[in-house]
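Residues determine shape. Take a concrete instance:
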Amino acid sequence: MKVKIKKGDTVEVISGKLEDKGKRGEVLNVLIKTRRVVVQGVNIHTKHQRQVQTQAGRNIQPGRIKFEAPMDISNVMLVCRTCSKPTRVAVQRDETGAHRVCKQCEAVLD
């Protein structure tokens, strides 16, 4: 399924946790099949890791590990680079190919 948000885009959280709402961050990963995105500095979860010894003889250090968890793609909105506002995205096609376009200022986002 097609998604209009890509890795490296700046997005703003429009719904979800109260402490994350309104935050902006860069998209680190897009999970297309599950329609989820991982945004830098948003949706921070804590995992309690115990010490594990791998087969190579290395030890994984115990403690709390903080990481960005995936969130639904409908909870974020793409931020336009020129007008720096959250915007909906249109796709315009021409002879060179398809381009993502800001709905407010009509700037090309690719």
Observations:
- The two ends are 19 Å apart (CA to CA).
